[in-house]
Amino acid sequence: MERDNFFGKDIISLNDFSRQDIDYILDVAQKIKDNPGEFKFSMKNKIMAPLFFENSTRTSTSFQMAMLHMGGNVMDFDVETSSLKKGETLRDTLMMIKGYQPDVVVLRHSLGGAVQLASDVLDCPVINAGDGQNQHPTQTMLDLFTINEIRGDIDGVKIAMVGDLKYGRTTHSLALALSKYNNCKIYFISPESLMMPKDVLKELQEKGIDFYENSLSDFQDILKLVDIVYMTRIQRERFSVGIEGEQEYQKIKNDYCLTRKMLKNVSPNLKIMHPLPKVFEIESEIDYTPYAYYFKQAENGLYIRKALLNLILKNNE
Ligand code: NCD
What we know:
It is built from 10 helices and 9 strands. It has helices at about 20-35, 60-70, 90-100, 115-120, 135-150, 170-180, 200-205, 220, 245-250, 295-315, and strands spanning about 45-50, 75, 105-110, 125-130, 160, 185-190, 210-215, 230, 270-275. Helix 3 runs parallel beside helix 4 (about 115-120). It is globular. The structure holds N-carbamoyl-L-aspartate. N-carbamoyl-L-aspartate binds next to helix 2 and helix 6.
């Protein structure tokens, strides 16, 4: 996609982007990272409406900061004090927002179809900031940017994705994105009840990417085979409410934790990524080792989101 082709577009699914599109976005983000003054006032007079119906720290703040860094404005919206608490539907809320004319909406919701609904209702571009267990495309772009930063290349990466692969939307998007690159190898490691969904595996199979499904007992051995281990937390909020869900969560919650001891014989170049928040799945002392890359990964979210806002909201100038 040429730069022009991003203008006015939604960002809903990784499937809408070719490898060339993604590489182009990563290049713009790299320019922004290398030149902090780049696009300084490019969002002047632009208004972003962040609609976060699920909790968020990194995605919401990095989108807001991206806008503010570039001289743009951010609407204030708090789901807790909104009329959704009075029972208003998402569609009605979106109809109102449409009338108030934001330049871009960034939406996170627990339902997979929510972003598509927003795109159908609204006139402005909509960015998916995580739709249920489905996808989280901007996280994936920052993950790819980070993999490239670590290795100098995305092609050929050997990566282990560990944890809640059933509900973890970041792993779904990342695996699908890697299938657009060459010679990548993915090891999926999860508790038995949280394995990668069959429909995602089927899509990966069709795309011909090399992947393996492993159990937690293989975790230690696989650490020696990969360049990157991508840890994820158990998505507790997606378990059924009530005693059953709680029991299931308690049963698996201590099943996997990456400890300092497990890193004893790994390559000195191994890097640990995590979309964050991390809860108990990485021993905290790992934060202080050169293996930990997750805070740098989170910072890269700012550059990716600045790049995306520019490409979507500014025509070629
Ligand atoms: C992730 C998400 O929301 O899917 N967080 C994020 O955006 N960085 C991962 C998670 O919540 O576990």
